[in-house]
């Protein structure tokens, strides 16, 4: 009977220790960062895809672009509204979103991801 009480007490302590980070931080999540657009991005008012799509799927789009450029030698992307864009992170995306620290890094830091884009691409191709 004494062992039963010790086991139950041990399980309670174990469960409390394991779940501590969850209930300690309950309701304390930081809000997602607001993106800071450059003047050129604000003036353009449109991106290659909708804002909602780009927030959720920009990496998948960039992977498709990379595949099409490298493997198929396709350089142009036709957006849903029929506009043509060069499939280029440096010349298309960073043309409007040139402030990497204010645009890219804020969300990537918030999501704790380290994209490998910058292993090959420079973050300020036009030297602005």
What does this entry look like structurally?
The longest helix has 23 residues, at 2-24. The protein is mostly helical. The chain has 5 helices and 2 strands, in the order H-H-H-E-E-H-H. The protein has a domain at 39-119.
| Proportion of beta-strand residues | under 5%
* Extended strand count: 2
Q: How does the overall form come out from the CA principal axes?
A: elongated
CA-to-CA gap between the ends? Answer: 75 Å
Put simply, the count of helices is 5
Q: What low-confidence regions span 5 or more consecutive residues with pLDDT below 50? A: none
Strand order of the largest sheet: 1-2
Give the averaged pLDDT, no decimals.
86
Helix content range of the residues, please? Answer: 40-55%
Rg from alpha-carbon coordinates:
23 Å
- The helix/strand series, from N terminus to C terminus, equals HHHEEHH
Can you summarize the main beta sheet?
2 strands, antiparallel
Search tags:
single chain, 128 residues, mainly alpha, two-stranded antiparallel ribbon, 2 strands, transmembrane helix, DsrJ, Cytochrome c, Multihaem_cyt_sf, transmembrane
């Amino acid at each position: 009977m004494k062992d039963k009480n010790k086991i139950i007490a041990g399980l309670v302590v174990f469960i409390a220790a394991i779940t501590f980070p969850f209930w300690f931080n309950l309701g304390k999540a930081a809000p997602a960062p607001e993106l800071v657009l450059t003047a050129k991005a604000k003036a353009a008012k449109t991106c290659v895809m909708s804002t909602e799509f780009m927030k959720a799927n920009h990496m998948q789009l960039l992977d498709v672009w990379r595949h099409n450029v490298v493997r198929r030698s396709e350089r142009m992307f036709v957006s849903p509204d029929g506009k043509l864009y060069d499939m280029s992170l440096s010349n298309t995306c960073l043309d409007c979103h040139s402030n990497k620290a204010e645009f890219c890094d804020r969300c990537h830091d918030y999501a704790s991801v380290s994209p490998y884009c910058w292993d090959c691409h420079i973050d300020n191709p036009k030297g602005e």
